[in-house]
């Protein structure tokens, strides 16, 4: 048995590297959107290769974009019988595990430099407070996603960790969402719902409304204080839900809690205008 998690690493790119990351990230999602649109029109998956993709991206990155576009088409478009056509909005760039490396001070990736693919070393902060990242990154590595969150560049490395589950071990599966923040189900089909998606969306709308008023009044400090208050409220809700899940697990003599794979939870799609702001501002810590 194995579990896939995402290790987040803060990046400290130079000004020049930031420009290259922005260029690569924007082109990456443009390629995916273009390929998905073509597949929707033709009603079938693309057979294009990197040579058929006109983008200023390294071949390895083009190849990954083609894979991601096929995945979006099969899991979103075809599954919805063409009623949902996702459009990626948030700039992001992805490399497979054969096209990046790191030495715990830098991450090395291929980027386009003056029209040619060159490996670029970007300073990275791998050290966390308990050195947990060092241990996690010793396992099987998956894709590397680099994106910008709140002005900061972050690398997200997918890691597959083997689990040692013995016969008789009881497992609790937990699925995360917006309408219902968390749903837990045991192996004998006991189900419990946690949190209120309606309440969460109401509070998010309330905070956005107040923030809009303060923005018109140019009250910058008040907006910052409001943002801090919103984050505290969100973290409190997350903490209470996680505690309820643990209590439910204890009541049912659960040994392992397995979360859904969250590797691509921030991959931006316009599947619901009503939910998109809640998805991309919600706390994931």
UniProtKB/TrEMBL annotation:
Where does the Probable transposase IS891/IS1136/IS1341 domain start and stop, copy by copy?
A: 159-265
Q: What is this protein called?
A: Putative transposase
InterPro entries tied to this protein: Transposase
Source organism per entry reads Paenibacillus uliginis N3/975
């Amino acid at each position: 048995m194995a579990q896939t998690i995402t290790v987040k690493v803060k990046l400290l790119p130079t000004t020049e590297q930031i420009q290259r990351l922005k260029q690569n990230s924007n082109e990456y999602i443009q390629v995916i959107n273009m390929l998905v649109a073509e597949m929707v029109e033709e009603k079938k998956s693309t057979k294009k290769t990197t040579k058929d993709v006109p983008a200023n991206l390294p071949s390895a990155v083009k190849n990954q974009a083609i894979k991601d576009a096929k995945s979006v088409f099969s899991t979103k478009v075809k599954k919805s019988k063409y009623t949902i056509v996702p459009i990626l909005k948030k700039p992001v760039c992805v490399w497979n595990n054969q096209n990046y490396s790191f030495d715990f001070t830098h991450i090395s990736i291929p980027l386009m430099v003056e029209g040619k693919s060159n490996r670029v070393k970007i300073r990275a902060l791998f050290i966390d407070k308990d050195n947990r990242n060092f241990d996690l990154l010793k396992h099987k590595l998956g894709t590397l996603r680099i994106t910008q969150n709140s002005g900061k560049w972050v690398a997200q490395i997918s890691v597959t960790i083997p689990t040692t589950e013995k016969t008789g071990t009881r497992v609790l599966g937990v699925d995360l969402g917006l309408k219902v923040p968390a749903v837990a189900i045991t192996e004998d089909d006991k189900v419990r719902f946690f949190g209120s998606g309606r309440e969460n969306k109401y509070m998010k709308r309330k905070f956005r409304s107040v923030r809009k008023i303060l923005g018109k009044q140019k009250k910058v400090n008040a907006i910052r204080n409001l943002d801090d208050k919103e984050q505290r409220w969100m973290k409190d809700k997350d903490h209470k839900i996680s505690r309820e899940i643990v209590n439910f697990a204890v009541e049912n003599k659960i040994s392992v809690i397995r979360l859904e794979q969250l590797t691509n939870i921030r991959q931006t799609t316009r599947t619901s205008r009503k939910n998109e702001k809640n998805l991309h501002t919600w706390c994931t810590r």
